[in-house]
UniProtKB/TrEMBL annotation:
<dbReference type="InterPro" id="IPR000801">
    <property type="entry name" value="Esterase-like"/>
</dbReference>
<dbReference type="InterPro" id="IPR029058">
    <property type="entry name" value="AB_hydrolase_fold"/>
</dbReference>
<protein>
    <submittedName>
        <fullName>Esterase family protein</fullName>
    </submittedName>
</protein>
<dbReference type="Pfam" id="PF00756">
    <property type="entry name" value="Esterase"/>
</dbReference>
<dbReference type="InterPro" id="IPR050583">
    <property type="entry name" value="Mycobacterial_A85_antigen"/>
</dbReference>
Length: 267
């Protein structure tokens, strides 16, 4: 596998951006892939949480090792602290990631598939919200996974002032009392997708039972499932911590429709 740090210019945001890319390649140290095996390869867009960036998944999990034997690309972008949202202060982060980034990936890495059935998105915490938001916003992704997602699908969302001040939240979303039912509410987006699209993404969610977002997930996810989504929702002991996300990202890889082959299962 190759791991690439890619600098590119975002026309949407008007500034330079970075993404990390894990890309399968032909090598004596890799499985007996042919050039044909590495064409039209599936891709997982892997999203970070509030304290992270495009490098954090590579630094704090085993993602590169986990996919070493599997022909899948991993694209890890950054949204800074913008919650995968077109902010009220005029920065269209959602458009940059949802529309512009896949086109940039297609230009730079033509071997990565653009087919819906081979495009997936997953994230943790803020990135779990982002993964569902992106999957509900258009027909690009066939699978979406949220790990410890801050899904904001209920009026009792945890006290935001413990993370940032009110001015920060209003800069992202505007009037926070109006978020539910808006374009930034995952349940509203899911309802709109059900009404407008024939194909719905398959969903996976995990939350630790000691996570402060546990009740948020228990409230939000059944509402999404009731709309007709194929949702796999799992819980287990755990807190809001990389120890658990490192374990759960492998569960996501097992769930995706790819030929996932961890090293320890090789003959």
């Amino acid at each position: 596998m190759a791991r690439l740090a890619v600098n590119y210019y975002s026309q949407v945001l008007g500034m330079d951006r970075m993404m990390q890319v894990i890309l399968p390649e032909l090598s004596d140290h890799m499985p007996a892939w042919t050039a044909a095996d590495l064409q039209d390869i599936p891709v997982l867009y892997l999203l970070h949480g509030m304290s992270g960036d495009q490098d954090v998944w590579s630094r704090r999990t085993s993602i590169e090792r986990l996919v070493r034997q599997t022909p899948i690309a991993i694209v890890m972008p950054s949204t800074d602290l913008a919650w995968y949202t077109n902010t009220t202060y005029g920065m269209a982060y959602l458009d940059a990631l949802l529309d512009e980034l896949p086109k940039k990936v297609a230009t730079l890495f033509p071997q990565i598939s653009q087919k819906r059935e081979k495009n997936f998105v997953a994230g943790l915490s803020m990135g779990g919200y982002g993964a569902f938001k992106m999957a509900f916003s258009n027909d690009q992704f066939s699978y979406a996974a949220s790990l410890s997602g801050a899904l904001m699908g209920d009026p009792n969302f945890p006290n935001r002032t413990t993370w940032q001040n009110d001015a920060y939240w209003e800069g992202i979303f505007g009037d926070m009392s109006q978020v539910l039912g808006s374009k930034n509410d995952v349940i509203t987006l899911a309802k709109q997708q059900v009404a407008s699209q024939k194909h719905l993404p398959k969903l996976y969610a995990w939350i630790g039972e000691q996570d402060y977002l546990y009740q948020n997930n228990l409230t939000t996810l059944p509402q999404i499932a009731a709309l007709g989504y194929d949702l796999t929702f799992e819980t287990s002991p755990g807190t809001h911590d990389w120890y658990y996300w490192d374990k759960q990202i492998e569960r996501v890889l097992e769930w995706l429709p790819i030929a996932y082959q961890p090293e320890e299962r090789l003959a």
